[in-house]
Protein backbone atom coordinates (compact mmCIF):
# COMPACT_ATOMS: atom_id res chain seq x y z
CA UNK A 1 0.00 0.00 0.00
CA UNK A 2 1.39 3.40 -0.91
CA UNK A 3 0.72 6.70 0.79
CA UNK A 4 2.42 10.04 0.36
CA UNK A 5 5.19 11.16 2.64
CA UNK A 6 7.65 14.00 2.78
CA UNK A 7 11.25 13.21 2.09
CA UNK A 8 13.44 14.30 4.98
CA UNK A 9 16.85 15.93 4.60
CA UNK A 10 19.01 16.36 7.70
CA UNK A 11 21.26 19.36 8.20
CA UNK A 12 24.36 17.51 7.07
CA UNK A 13 22.93 16.21 3.84
CA UNK A 14 21.14 19.51 3.17
CA UNK A 15 24.51 21.14 2.92
CA UNK A 16 25.77 18.45 0.62
CA UNK A 17 22.85 18.63 -1.71
CA UNK A 18 22.62 22.29 -2.39
CA UNK A 19 21.63 21.31 -5.91
CA UNK A 20 18.52 19.66 -4.55
CA UNK A 21 16.59 22.76 -3.58
CA UNK A 22 13.19 21.55 -2.49
CA UNK A 23 13.13 20.11 0.98
CA UNK A 24 9.62 18.80 0.76
CA UNK A 25 9.30 16.20 -1.94
CA UNK A 26 6.46 13.80 -2.30
CA UNK A 27 7.49 10.19 -2.40
CA UNK A 28 5.92 6.89 -1.66
CA UNK A 29 5.84 5.98 1.97
CA UNK A 30 7.74 3.17 3.56
CA UNK A 31 5.20 0.44 3.45
CA UNK A 32 7.72 -2.17 4.42
CA UNK A 33 7.99 -3.05 8.06
CA UNK A 34 11.44 -2.70 9.58
CA UNK A 35 13.51 -5.86 9.66
CA UNK A 36 14.42 -5.23 13.28
CA UNK A 37 12.25 -3.64 15.89
CA UNK A 38 12.75 0.15 16.00
CA UNK A 39 15.33 -0.03 13.28
CA UNK A 40 15.43 1.51 9.81
CA UNK A 41 14.93 -0.62 6.73
CA UNK A 42 18.29 -2.31 6.30
CA UNK A 43 19.24 -2.51 2.67
CA UNK A 44 22.89 -2.25 3.63
CA UNK A 45 24.10 -5.61 4.92
CA UNK A 46 22.65 -8.12 2.45
CA UNK A 47 20.39 -9.65 5.07
CA UNK A 48 17.51 -11.81 3.94
CA UNK A 49 14.26 -9.80 4.10
CA UNK A 50 12.14 -12.83 3.17
CA UNK A 51 12.85 -14.79 6.32
CA UNK A 52 14.19 -18.20 7.29
CA UNK A 53 12.21 -21.42 7.37
CA UNK A 54 9.64 -21.60 10.18
CA UNK A 55 10.79 -25.19 10.69
CA UNK A 56 14.12 -23.87 12.00
CA UNK A 57 12.30 -21.74 14.53
CA UNK A 58 10.17 -24.66 15.71
CA UNK A 59 13.19 -26.95 16.00
CA UNK A 60 15.21 -24.37 17.94
CA UNK A 61 12.38 -23.69 20.36
CA UNK A 62 11.93 -27.41 20.94
CA UNK A 63 15.66 -27.74 21.73
CA UNK A 64 16.14 -24.83 24.11
CA UNK A 65 16.29 -27.02 27.19
CA UNK A 66 19.52 -28.62 25.98
CA UNK A 67 21.30 -25.28 26.17
CA UNK A 68 23.11 -26.16 29.37
CA UNK A 69 25.29 -28.77 27.68
CA UNK A 70 28.36 -28.59 25.45
CA UNK A 71 26.26 -30.18 22.79
CA UNK A 72 28.25 -31.22 19.71
CA UNK A 73 25.68 -33.77 18.48
CA UNK A 74 23.78 -31.29 16.33
CA UNK A 75 26.93 -29.91 14.77
CA UNK A 76 28.08 -33.45 13.99
CA UNK A 77 24.70 -34.25 12.45
CA UNK A 78 24.90 -31.09 10.36
CA UNK A 79 28.40 -32.00 9.16
CA UNK A 80 27.10 -35.38 7.93
CA UNK A 81 24.21 -33.70 6.12
CA UNK A 82 26.51 -31.15 4.51
CA UNK A 83 29.03 -33.80 3.48
CA UNK A 84 26.24 -35.68 1.72
CA UNK A 85 24.96 -32.50 0.09
CA UNK A 86 28.44 -31.57 -1.14
CA UNK A 87 29.27 -35.16 -2.05
CA UNK A 88 32.47 -35.24 0.01
CA UNK A 89 33.65 -37.19 3.09
CA UNK A 90 32.79 -35.60 6.46
CA UNK A 91 36.41 -34.60 7.08
CA UNK A 92 36.09 -32.19 4.13
CA UNK A 93 33.57 -30.05 6.04
CA UNK A 94 34.40 -27.44 8.68
CA UNK A 95 31.57 -25.51 10.36
CA UNK A 96 32.07 -22.10 11.94
CA UNK A 97 30.00 -19.22 13.36
CA UNK A 98 29.27 -17.72 9.94
CA UNK A 99 31.65 -18.01 7.00
CA UNK A 100 33.51 -14.86 8.03
CA UNK A 101 35.68 -16.81 10.51
CA UNK A 102 36.89 -19.05 7.66
CA UNK A 103 38.06 -16.00 5.72
CA UNK A 104 39.91 -14.81 8.82
CA UNK A 105 41.41 -18.22 9.54
CA UNK A 106 42.91 -18.44 6.07
CA UNK A 107 44.34 -14.94 6.33
CA UNK A 108 45.81 -15.62 9.77
CA UNK A 109 47.29 -18.93 8.68
CA UNK A 110 49.07 -17.59 5.60
CA UNK A 111 49.82 -13.90 6.17
CA UNK A 112 53.34 -12.83 7.01
CA UNK A 113 55.61 -10.01 5.86
CA UNK A 114 56.61 -10.59 2.25
CA UNK A 115 53.65 -12.91 1.50
CA UNK A 116 50.82 -11.76 -0.72
CA UNK A 117 47.21 -12.54 -1.49
CA UNK A 118 45.98 -12.03 -5.05
CA UNK A 119 42.42 -10.91 -5.57
CA UNK A 120 40.42 -8.72 -7.89
CA UNK A 121 39.66 -5.04 -7.49
CA UNK A 122 36.28 -4.32 -5.91
CA UNK A 123 36.03 -7.54 -3.95
CA UNK A 124 34.92 -8.53 -0.47
CA UNK A 125 37.50 -7.31 1.98
CA UNK A 126 37.32 -9.50 5.09
CA UNK A 127 40.16 -11.87 4.13
CA UNK A 128 42.42 -9.37 2.41
CA UNK A 129 42.21 -6.78 5.18
CA UNK A 130 43.11 -9.34 7.80
CA UNK A 131 45.98 -10.50 5.59
CA UNK A 132 47.23 -6.90 5.40
CA UNK A 133 46.82 -6.36 9.13
CA UNK A 134 49.08 -9.34 9.71
CA UNK A 135 51.83 -7.81 7.59
CA UNK A 136 51.09 -9.39 4.20
CA UNK A 137 50.47 -7.59 0.89
CA UNK A 138 47.40 -7.53 -1.31
CA UNK A 139 47.77 -7.61 -5.08
CA UNK A 140 44.66 -6.42 -6.88
CA UNK A 141 43.98 -7.58 -10.43
CA UNK A 142 42.07 -5.27 -12.75
CA UNK A 143 38.36 -5.82 -13.29
CA UNK A 144 36.93 -6.86 -16.62
CA UNK A 145 34.92 -4.24 -18.51
CA UNK A 146 31.71 -5.67 -17.01
CA UNK A 147 33.11 -5.26 -13.48
CA UNK A 148 33.69 -9.01 -13.33
CA UNK A 149 36.79 -11.17 -13.01
CA UNK A 150 39.60 -10.95 -15.49
CA UNK A 151 41.42 -14.20 -14.88
CA UNK A 152 44.34 -13.34 -17.12
CA UNK A 153 44.87 -10.20 -15.06
CA UNK A 154 44.69 -12.29 -11.90
CA UNK A 155 47.16 -14.81 -13.22
CA UNK A 156 49.65 -12.07 -14.02
CA UNK A 157 49.55 -10.86 -10.39
CA UNK A 158 50.60 -14.26 -9.02
CA UNK A 159 54.26 -14.52 -8.07
CA UNK A 160 56.54 -16.68 -5.95
CA UNK A 161 55.30 -14.95 -2.75
CA UNK A 162 51.60 -15.55 -3.41
CA UNK A 163 50.01 -17.66 -0.67
CA UNK A 164 46.31 -17.24 -1.42
CA UNK A 165 44.21 -16.40 -4.47
CA UNK A 166 40.85 -15.13 -3.20
CA UNK A 167 37.78 -15.14 -5.44
CA UNK A 168 34.33 -14.10 -4.28
CA UNK A 169 31.70 -15.48 -6.65
CA UNK A 170 29.37 -13.70 -7.21
CA UNK A 171 31.54 -10.81 -6.17
CA UNK A 172 30.65 -8.34 -3.44
CA UNK A 173 29.98 -5.41 -3.91
CA UNK A 174 29.73 -5.66 -7.70
CA UNK A 175 27.41 -8.70 -7.69
CA UNK A 176 28.99 -10.01 -10.88
CA UNK A 177 29.26 -13.76 -11.39
CA UNK A 178 32.32 -15.28 -13.02
CA UNK A 179 31.94 -17.42 -16.12
CA UNK A 180 31.96 -20.91 -14.60
CA UNK A 181 34.12 -22.56 -17.25
CA UNK A 182 36.74 -19.80 -17.11
CA UNK A 183 36.66 -19.80 -13.32
CA UNK A 184 37.18 -23.54 -13.03
CA UNK A 185 39.98 -23.55 -15.58
CA UNK A 186 41.64 -20.75 -13.67
CA UNK A 187 41.27 -22.49 -10.29
CA UNK A 188 42.85 -25.65 -11.65
CA UNK A 189 45.69 -23.71 -13.26
CA UNK A 190 46.90 -21.86 -10.15
CA UNK A 191 50.22 -23.35 -8.95
CA UNK A 192 49.43 -26.18 -6.52
CA UNK A 193 51.30 -24.70 -3.56
CA UNK A 194 48.93 -21.68 -3.50
CA UNK A 195 45.61 -21.87 -1.66
CA UNK A 196 42.67 -20.93 -3.91
CA UNK A 197 39.85 -19.57 -1.77
CA UNK A 198 36.43 -19.39 -3.45
CA UNK A 199 33.83 -17.56 -1.38
CA UNK A 200 30.37 -18.62 -2.59
CA UNK A 201 28.34 -16.72 0.03
CA UNK A 202 25.73 -15.63 -2.54
CA UNK A 203 25.96 -18.36 -5.14
CA UNK A 204 22.59 -19.98 -4.51
CA UNK A 205 20.92 -16.68 -5.46
CA UNK A 206 22.55 -16.54 -8.85
CA UNK A 207 20.65 -16.80 -12.13
CA UNK A 208 23.08 -19.50 -13.22
CA UNK A 209 22.50 -23.12 -12.22
CA UNK A 210 24.16 -23.65 -8.83
CA UNK A 211 25.48 -27.13 -9.58
CA UNK A 212 27.23 -25.85 -12.69
CA UNK A 213 28.62 -22.74 -11.06
CA UNK A 214 29.96 -24.07 -7.77
CA UNK A 215 33.63 -24.89 -7.41
CA UNK A 216 33.08 -27.39 -4.58
CA UNK A 217 33.41 -30.51 -6.79
CA UNK A 218 36.95 -29.35 -7.58
CA UNK A 219 38.12 -29.96 -4.01
CA UNK A 220 38.52 -33.61 -4.96
CA UNK A 221 40.75 -32.66 -7.87
CA UNK A 222 42.80 -29.94 -6.25
CA UNK A 223 44.11 -30.30 -2.69
CA UNK A 224 44.82 -26.61 -2.17
CA UNK A 225 41.28 -25.28 -2.64
CA UNK A 226 38.66 -24.13 -0.15
CA UNK A 227 35.06 -23.21 -0.98
CA UNK A 228 33.03 -21.41 1.67
CA UNK A 229 29.29 -21.08 2.14
CA UNK A 230 27.07 -19.32 4.62
CA UNK A 231 23.60 -19.77 6.04
CA UNK A 232 23.38 -15.98 6.43
CA UNK A 233 22.17 -15.09 2.95
CA UNK A 234 19.86 -17.37 0.93
CA UNK A 235 18.86 -19.29 4.06
CA UNK A 236 18.30 -16.11 6.07
CA UNK A 237 20.02 -17.20 9.31
CA UNK A 238 22.57 -14.35 9.61
CA UNK A 239 21.96 -13.63 13.29
CA UNK A 240 22.41 -17.25 14.31
CA UNK A 241 25.94 -17.27 12.84
CA UNK A 242 26.65 -20.40 10.89
CA UNK A 243 28.68 -21.18 7.80
CA UNK A 244 31.05 -23.85 6.55
CA UNK A 245 33.85 -24.74 4.20
CA UNK A 246 34.42 -27.58 1.78
CA UNK A 247 38.08 -28.49 1.34
CA UNK A 248 40.57 -31.29 1.66
CA UNK A 249 41.51 -32.21 5.25
CA UNK A 250 45.02 -30.93 4.39
CA UNK A 251 43.69 -27.38 4.02
CA UNK A 252 41.73 -27.74 7.27
CA UNK A 253 44.93 -28.82 9.01
CA UNK A 254 46.64 -25.58 7.99
CA UNK A 255 43.86 -23.16 8.97
CA UNK A 256 42.79 -25.14 12.03
CA UNK A 257 45.38 -23.40 14.26
CA UNK A 258 43.06 -20.40 14.19
CA UNK A 259 39.78 -22.24 14.74
CA UNK A 260 37.75 -20.49 17.41
CA UNK A 261 35.31 -23.32 17.99
CA UNK A 262 32.11 -24.68 16.47
CA UNK A 263 28.88 -22.80 15.91
CA UNK A 264 26.30 -23.03 18.68
CA UNK A 265 24.06 -26.07 18.81
CA UNK A 266 21.02 -23.88 18.12
CA UNK A 267 22.56 -22.51 14.94
CA UNK A 268 23.33 -26.08 13.86
CA UNK A 269 19.73 -27.11 14.55
CA UNK A 270 18.48 -24.17 12.48
CA UNK A 271 20.89 -25.00 9.66
CA UNK A 272 19.80 -28.66 9.57
CA UNK A 273 16.18 -27.59 9.11
CA UNK A 274 17.18 -24.98 6.56
CA UNK A 275 19.04 -27.51 4.42
CA UNK A 276 16.14 -29.96 4.63
CA UNK A 277 13.53 -27.37 3.71
CA UNK A 278 14.44 -27.13 0.05
CA UNK A 279 11.03 -25.64 -0.76
CA UNK A 280 11.65 -22.68 1.51
CA UNK A 281 15.05 -22.04 -0.02
CA UNK A 282 13.56 -22.26 -3.51
CA UNK A 283 10.91 -19.73 -2.50
CA UNK A 284 13.55 -17.37 -1.13
CA UNK A 285 15.62 -17.68 -4.28
CA UNK A 286 12.57 -16.94 -6.38
CA UNK A 287 11.84 -13.86 -4.25
CA UNK A 288 15.39 -12.64 -4.68
CA UNK A 289 15.38 -13.17 -8.41
CA UNK A 290 12.04 -11.54 -9.02
CA UNK A 291 12.73 -8.45 -6.86
CA UNK A 292 16.25 -8.18 -8.30
CA UNK A 293 15.00 -8.16 -11.86
CA UNK A 294 12.23 -5.74 -10.90
CA UNK A 295 14.78 -3.27 -9.47
CA UNK A 296 16.94 -3.67 -12.58
CA UNK A 297 13.99 -2.84 -14.80
CA UNK A 298 13.24 0.23 -12.68
CA UNK A 299 16.91 1.23 -12.90
CA UNK A 300 16.66 0.86 -16.68
CA UNK A 301 13.69 3.21 -16.73
CA UNK A 302 15.62 5.72 -14.65
CA UNK A 303 18.67 5.39 -16.87
CA UNK A 304 20.76 4.09 -13.98
CA UNK A 305 23.80 2.02 -14.87
CA UNK A 306 24.47 -1.11 -12.79
CA UNK A 307 26.72 -4.14 -12.74
CA UNK A 308 24.91 -7.37 -13.70
CA UNK A 309 23.72 -8.61 -10.31
CA UNK A 310 23.77 -12.27 -9.31
CA UNK A 311 23.71 -11.93 -5.54
CA UNK A 312 21.63 -10.36 -2.78
CA UNK A 313 22.37 -6.78 -3.87
CA UNK A 314 22.90 -4.46 -6.81
CA UNK A 315 25.84 -2.15 -7.40
CA UNK A 316 24.58 0.89 -9.24
CA UNK A 317 25.65 4.29 -10.48
CA UNK A 318 23.13 6.84 -9.32
CA UNK A 319 25.24 9.77 -10.54
CA UNK A 320 24.71 11.29 -7.08
CA UNK A 321 27.35 11.74 -4.45
CA UNK A 322 27.44 8.42 -2.62
CA UNK A 323 27.59 9.92 0.86
CA UNK A 324 24.75 12.34 0.18
CA UNK A 325 22.61 9.53 -1.18
CA UNK A 326 23.27 7.37 1.85
CA UNK A 327 22.57 10.25 4.22
CA UNK A 328 19.25 11.13 2.59
CA UNK A 329 18.22 7.49 2.51
CA UNK A 330 19.11 7.15 6.18
CA UNK A 331 17.19 10.24 7.14
CA UNK A 332 14.23 8.67 5.42
CA UNK A 333 14.53 5.37 7.22
CA UNK A 334 16.57 3.32 4.75
CA UNK A 335 20.15 2.18 5.13
CA UNK A 336 22.14 1.46 1.98
CA UNK A 337 25.84 0.87 1.57
CA UNK A 338 28.47 2.88 -0.25
CA UNK A 339 30.46 -0.29 -0.07
CA UNK A 340 34.15 -0.33 0.37
CA UNK A 341 36.12 0.27 -2.77
CA UNK A 342 39.15 -1.98 -2.72
CA UNK A 343 42.13 -1.73 -4.99
CA UNK A 344 40.90 1.25 -7.04
CA UNK A 345 40.98 4.99 -6.36
CA UNK A 346 37.85 5.84 -4.31
CA UNK A 347 36.95 8.68 -6.72
CA UNK A 348 36.30 6.18 -9.49
CA UNK A 349 33.22 4.85 -7.73
CA UNK A 350 32.08 7.84 -5.70
CA UNK A 351 28.82 8.02 -7.66
CA UNK A 352 28.15 4.33 -7.12
CA UNK A 353 26.44 2.62 -4.20
CA UNK A 354 25.21 -0.83 -3.23
CA UNK A 355 21.65 -1.64 -2.29
CA UNK A 356 20.61 -4.99 -0.84
CA UNK A 357 17.59 -6.76 -2.26
CA UNK A 358 14.68 -6.43 0.18
CA UNK A 359 10.98 -6.99 -0.26
CA UNK A 360 9.30 -5.33 -3.21
CA UNK A 361 7.74 -2.76 -0.85
CA UNK A 362 11.13 -1.91 0.62
CA UNK A 363 12.62 -1.54 -2.85
CA UNK A 364 9.73 0.67 -3.94
CA UNK A 365 10.44 2.99 -1.03
CA UNK A 366 14.10 3.07 -1.97
CA UNK A 367 13.37 3.63 -5.67
CA UNK A 368 10.92 6.37 -4.90
CA UNK A 369 13.47 8.37 -2.92
CA UNK A 370 16.17 7.70 -5.50
CA UNK A 371 14.09 8.82 -8.46
CA UNK A 372 13.03 11.96 -6.62
CA UNK A 373 16.66 12.82 -5.90
CA UNK A 374 17.72 12.13 -9.48
CA UNK A 375 14.96 14.33 -10.89
CA UNK A 376 15.93 17.18 -8.59
CA UNK A 377 19.67 16.92 -9.15
C1 LIG B 1 31.07 -12.24 0.16
C2 LIG B 1 30.85 -12.50 1.61
N1 LIG B 1 31.51 -13.51 2.19
C3 LIG B 1 31.36 -13.79 3.48
C4 LIG B 1 30.54 -13.03 4.27
C5 LIG B 1 30.46 -13.37 5.71
O1 LIG B 1 29.14 -13.63 6.11
P1 LIG B 1 28.82 -14.57 7.34
O2 LIG B 1 29.96 -14.46 8.31
O3 LIG B 1 27.54 -14.07 7.88
O4 LIG B 1 28.72 -15.97 6.79
C6 LIG B 1 29.83 -11.96 3.72
C7 LIG B 1 28.95 -11.11 4.54
O5 LIG B 1 28.31 -10.19 4.15
C8 LIG B 1 29.99 -11.69 2.34
O6 LIG B 1 29.37 -10.67 1.75
Describe the structure.
The strands form four sheets. The protein has a seven-stranded mixed sheet, with helices on both faces. It folds into two domains: 4-52 and 280-376, Alpha-Beta Complex (Aspartate Aminotransferase, domain 1), CATH 3.90.1150.10; 54-276, 3-Layer(aba) Sandwich (Aspartate Aminotransferase, domain 2). Mean pLDDT is 91; it is low at 1-5 and 15-34. The chain has helices at residues 11-16, 54-62, 73-86, 100-110, 126-133, 151-157, 180-189, 210-213, 249-255, 265-276, 278-302, 322-331, 360-376; strands at residues 4-6, 26-28, 41-43, 93-96, 116-120, 137-141, 162-168, 195-199, 225-230, 243-247, 305-306, 313-317, 334-336, 352-356. With 377 residues, the protein is of the alpha/beta class. The chain is built from 13 helices and 14 strands. Bound molecules: pyridoxal-5'-phosphate. The site of pyridoxal-5'-phosphate has 13 residues, from loops.
